[in-house]
């Protein structure tokens, strides 16, 4: 073959490879994002691998696409590895399609390369985003200090001193910190009020505070200062400053670099707030006492691309977002030490008032009768009330469960115990699947989808012994409130299986951060809902697909310890008789294994379980609280090894596989 033929062969192979990659990107967009690509030429292109989610900023992409023609709009959704371009004509879009497809670009501020894959789309939907209000009680003051004053304050910090804070080493990791007035103790999130540090606050800070008092930015002069220095990529875990430790006002001065701080309300609302360089953040009232605040550990922030908004909330406007590389930021955080218990109006998150809250919390008993009553009130009744809204949020199957179902032999009889709205009942058409659930309303939804499902308790399934080739129990067993009842649920699955049959079990994990990876539950941020579309940041794909960790063999010593710790000397499960159940704060790490998890019903439901459209009412209004009630569901979140330890007590089964999957502990069982 001559050189021309060889070149043609190489070109054909390259073109075929590009086409395969392009089709794969098209299928991924449809499967995970609901974006349907078309084969004919349009004015609109979707650019896979060309989004904020994989490090491409607006300036870089806009410069690239403008070389092909007039760009009417460039939409870059937050945290997504794709963008959508609208050209002025189909000819310009076709030119971009031919030019950019398969083009490799180097990311700015990075040595990484990404390859763009382009497809046509029919329509592009977006709308004007309503500006997001700052949390109540939050105030921003821009340019509080001049660049010269900023430089003096930064130079006044003596980082060469060997200041070792023993209790802070685990929490601070690589962050540098200094304390003045009082040392903040990271082991108990408090201060020792009887042991002030010598010297008080630095004089340069006293001058600044006098200025703030004179201007009315603060009402009381602080007596505690924490200086933190963060390199790009470092952050602060979401938290509320301890109520009993400090008074209402908490102020923070950002020096050296700007940054985005995330605020979150217990009901799930989030606000990303831009803190410009040399600006002062003042938190009082609700923003100080009720909302968590934190900084995500990342090297780039998603910010507004235009000059119109460089301070305040970062609105999720897909037409005006870009990436901003972080610099080294030094924060001066001022607080006033509290000398009496906090009596704020937010007792649910107030450590001074938690004792009163526990008196009102439901009792947690270990008796069979009381456990059943607790589940009836905080599981069964709740799912009847929230069924329609719950079902509307449960539409994406989890990949590893789909994989389990698709590997079963054709014609297998499979029972989904606790099937919910039946999202797994139709995954594999070659299986004969039946479902059951304790909620009549959820079973009715299954019926509307033409699935076979019936109402029953997972502890007593009216199906004969050894009649199923496989069973799945997804997010069910953690709703049982004693160790005996959880074990009974596993035993019931084993009863249904034929010898050699398989069961897959998923339960919620205590560990929402595992192998240095946060689960989607902790990372998820609610996206804005538009009239035309909803950007769902809960789904990641392509280069940013979350890894699922397999744990084929668990530490048997840990399993034994977990099992032993759950029993008293007589071998009976200990369940904290007469203890009170804490209410978990959504999207935070678990602090207790037995908790009540809030479900915020959007818009409420009518008697038929149909969702009612939400009203536009103030977030704090009594009408909204009545119209959008909060229900509490009981959960027992499993610690590592606990599910396996329970399964190992049954002689009739063996654990074939165990793993951690995005905040859940999972096992695959085989009946002997």
Amount of helix = 25-40%
Output the radius of gyration.
Answer: 28 Å
Count the helices. How many?
A: 16
Q: Which term fits the overall shape?
A: flat
Assembly state: single chain
Residue stretches low in confidence (pLDDT < 50, at least 5 long) are 166-171, 356-361, 525-579, 604-627
Order of the strands making up the biggest sheet = 26-25-24-27-28-36-35-31
The largest pleated sheet is described as: 8 strands, mixed
Q: Helix- and strand-based class?
A: alpha+beta
Q: DSSP strand (E) fraction?
A: 25-35%
For the secondary structure, the number of strands is 36
User: How far apart lie the N and C ends?
Assistant: 61 Å
Q: Give the rounded overall mean pLDDT.
A: 80
Describe it.
- By secondary structure, the protein is an alpha+beta fold.
- The strands form ten sheets. It has an eight-stranded mixed beta sheet with strand order 26-25-24-27-28-36-35-31, with helices on both faces.
- The chain has 16 helices and 36 strands.
- Residues 166-171, 356-361, 525-579 and 604-627 have low confidence and may be disordered.
- Its EC number is 2.1.1.229.
- It is found in: Cytoplasm; Nucleus.
């Amino acid at each position: 073959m001559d050189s021309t033929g060889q070149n043609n062969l190489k070109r054909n192979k390259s073109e075929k490879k590009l086409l395969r990659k392009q089709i794969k990107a098209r299928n991924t967009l449809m499967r995970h994002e609901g974006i349907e690509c078309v084969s004919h030429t349009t004015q609109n292109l979707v650019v896979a691998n060309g989004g904020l989610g994989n490090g491409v900023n607006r300036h870089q992409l806009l410069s690239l696409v403008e070389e092909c023609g007039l760009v009417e709009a460039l939409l870059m959704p937050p945290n997504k590895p794709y963008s959508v371009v609208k050209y002025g004509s189909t000819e310009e879009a076709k030119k971009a399609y031919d030019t950019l497809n398969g083009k490799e670009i180097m990311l700015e501020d990075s040595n990484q390369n990404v390859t763009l894959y382009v497809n046509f789309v029919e329509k592009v939907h977006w709308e004007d985003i309503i500006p997001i209000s700052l949390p109540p009680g939050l105030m921003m003051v821009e340019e509080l200090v001049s660049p010269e004053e900023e430089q003096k304050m930064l130079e006044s910090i003596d980082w060469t001193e060997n200041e070792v804070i023993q209790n802070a080493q685990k929490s601070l990791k690589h962050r540098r910190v200094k304390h003045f007035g009082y040392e903040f103790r990271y082991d108990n999130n408090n201060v020792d009020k009887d042991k002030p540090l010598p010297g008080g606050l630095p004089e340069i800070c006293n001058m600044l505070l006098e200025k703030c008092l004179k201007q009315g930015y603060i009402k009381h002069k602080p007596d505690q200062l924490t200086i933190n220095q963060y390199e790009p990529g470092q952050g602060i875990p979401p938290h509320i400053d301890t109520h009993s430790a400090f008074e209402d006002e908490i102020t923070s001065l950002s020096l050296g670099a700007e940054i985005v701080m995330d605020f979150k309300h217990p009901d799930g609302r989030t606000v990303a707030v831009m803190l410009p360089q040399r600006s002062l953040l003042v938190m009082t009232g609700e923003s100080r006492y009720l909302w968590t605040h934190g900084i995500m550990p990342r090297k780039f922030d998603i910010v507004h691309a235009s000059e119109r908004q460089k301070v305040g909330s970062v609105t999720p406007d897909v037409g005006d977002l870009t990436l901003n590389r972080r610099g080294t930021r030094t924060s001066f955080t001022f607080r006033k030490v509290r000398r009496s218990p906090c009596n704020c109006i937010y007792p649910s998150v107030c450590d001074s008032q938690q004792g009163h809250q526990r008196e009102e919390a439901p009792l947690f008993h270990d008796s069979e009768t009381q456990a059943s009553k607790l589940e009836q009130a905080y599981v069964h009744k709740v799912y009847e009330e929230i069924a329609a809204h719950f079902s509307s949020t449960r539409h994406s199957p989890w990949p590893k469960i789909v994989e389990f179902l698709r590997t079963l032999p054709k014609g297998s009889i499979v029972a989904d115990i606790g099937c919910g709205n039946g999202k797994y009942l139709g995954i594999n058409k070659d299986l004969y699947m039946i479902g059951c659930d304790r909620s009549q309303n959820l079973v009715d939804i299954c019926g509307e989808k033409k699935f076979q499902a019936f109402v029953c308790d997972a502890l007593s399934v009216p199906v004969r012994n050894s009649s199923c080739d496989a069973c799945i129990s997804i997010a069910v067993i953690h709703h049982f409130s004693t160790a005996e009842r959880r074990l009974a649920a596993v035993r019931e699955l084993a009863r249904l299986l034929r010898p050699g049959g398989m069961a897959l079990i998923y339960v919620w994990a205590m560990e929402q951060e595992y192998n240095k990876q946060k689960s989607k539950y902790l990372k998820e941020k609610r996206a804005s809902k538009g009239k035309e579309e909803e950007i769902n940041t809960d789904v990641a794909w392509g280069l940013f697909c979350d890894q699922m960790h397999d744990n084929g063999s668990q530490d048997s010593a840990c399993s034994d310890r977990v099992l032993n710790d759950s029993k008293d000397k007589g071998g009976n499960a200990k369940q904290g008789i007469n203890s009170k159940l804490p209410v978990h704060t959504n999207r935070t790490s678990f602090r207790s294994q037995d908790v009540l998890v809030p479900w915020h019903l959007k818009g409420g439901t009518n008697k038929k379980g149909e969702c009612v459209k939400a009203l536009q009412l103030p977030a704090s209004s009594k009408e909204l609280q009545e119209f959008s009630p909060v229900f509490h569901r009981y959960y027992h979140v499993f610690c590592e090894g606990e599910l396996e330890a329970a399964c190992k007590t049954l002689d009739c089964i063996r654990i074939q596989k165990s793993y951690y999957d995005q905040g859940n502990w999972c096992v695959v069982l085989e009946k002997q």
